[in-house]
């Protein structure tokens, strides 16, 4: 299939797939904005698909609010993308974000406008959660990431703990992170920004 771009603006759509049945997709870009209502975004394909890179950009509207509680994620039998980028700059995510990828997954939340009513869970060889100019973020809402990068000043409510640090988490970026740290297992590494 090569590459594809799907733009949803001021529309209602049930489910968006990055690839169709048996497709091989080099790059899929999904943009959601305006007053759109999207039931679910599938970052891999529908059935037996190969998607090399998926980028999801949400700048407005709502994604999720469905019975499975997954707003952005993969489909059973549909495979996972090799690389995934989820960029949230606005809108409401009503459900979980499953940042599953074969190689790398990155979730970037910019500013205080995005409302996230779910968890952000990573499962990839390399994964990063990036908070850009976001004043607060709930530490109970993320896990499975290798790195947490902060630009600006962010207060992590609930702190950094066994649940979100996991085996290892590297805290970096050019900003300032305010968080209580309570670990009985795992390794938290603070990297110079």
Provide structural commentary.
The chain is an all-beta fold and 193 residues long. Helix content is 2%, strand content 60%. It has 1 helix and 23 strands. The strands form 4 sheets. Strands 1-3-5-8-11-14-17-20-23 form a 9-stranded parallel sheet, with no helix packed on it. Strands 2, 4, 6, 7, 9, 10, 12, 13 and 16 form a 9-stranded parallel sheet that branches. The model has no long low-confidence stretch (mean pLDDT 93).
List keywords for this structure.
single chain; 193 residues; mainly beta; nine-stranded parallel beta sheet
Helix and strand topology:
Blueprint lengths: L1 E8 L2 E8 L4 E10 L3 E9 L4 E9 L3 E3 L5 E4 L9 E6 L3 E3 L1 E5 L3 E7 L4 E2 L3 E4 L2 E7 L3 E3 L3 E2 L3 E5 L1 E5 L2 E2 H4 L2 E5 L3 E3 L2 E2 L4 E4 L3
Parallel strand pairs: 1-3, 2-4, 3-5, 4-6, 4-7, 5-8, 6-9, 7-10, 8-11, 9-12, 10-13, 11-14, 13-16, 14-17, 15-18, 17-20, 18-21, 19-22, 20-23
Quick summary:
With 193 residues, the protein is mostly beta strands. It has 1 helix and 23 strands.
Fraction of residues in H or I helices: under 10%
Low-confidence stretches: none
Overall geometry comes to globular
Radius of gyration computed on alpha carbons: 16 Å
List the strand order in the largest sheet: 1-3-5-8-11-14-17-20-23
> Largest sheet, if any?
9 strands, parallel
Instruction: Provide a count of the helices.
Output: 1
Portion of residues in beta strands equals: over 45%
Mean of residue pLDDT values: 93
Instruction: List how many beta strands DSSP finds.
Output: 23
């Amino acid at each position: 299939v090569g590459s594809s771009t799907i733009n949803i603006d001021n529309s209602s759509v049930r489910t968006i797939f990055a690839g169709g049945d048996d497709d091989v997709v080099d790059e899929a870009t999904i943009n959601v904005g305006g007053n759109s209502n999207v039931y679910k975004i599938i970052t891999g394909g529908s059935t037996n698909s190969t998607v090399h890179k998926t980028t999801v950009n949400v700048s407005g509207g709502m994604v999720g609010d469905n019975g499975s509680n997954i707003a952005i994620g993969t489909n059973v039998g549909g495979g996972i993308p090799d690389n995934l980028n989820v960029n949230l700059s606005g809108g409401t995510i009503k459900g979980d974000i499953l940042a599953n990828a074969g190689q790398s997954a990155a979730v970037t939340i910019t500013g205080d406008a995005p409302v996230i009513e779910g968890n952000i869970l990573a499962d990839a060889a390399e994964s990063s959660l990036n908070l850009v100019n976001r004043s607060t973020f709930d530490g109970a809402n993320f896990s499975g990431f290798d790195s947490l990068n902060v630009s600006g000043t962010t207060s992590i409510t609930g702190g950094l703990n066994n649940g979100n640090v996991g085996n290892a988490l590297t805290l970096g970026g050019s900003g300032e992170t305010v968080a209580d740290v309570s670990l009985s297992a795992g390794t938290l590494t603070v990297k110079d920004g």
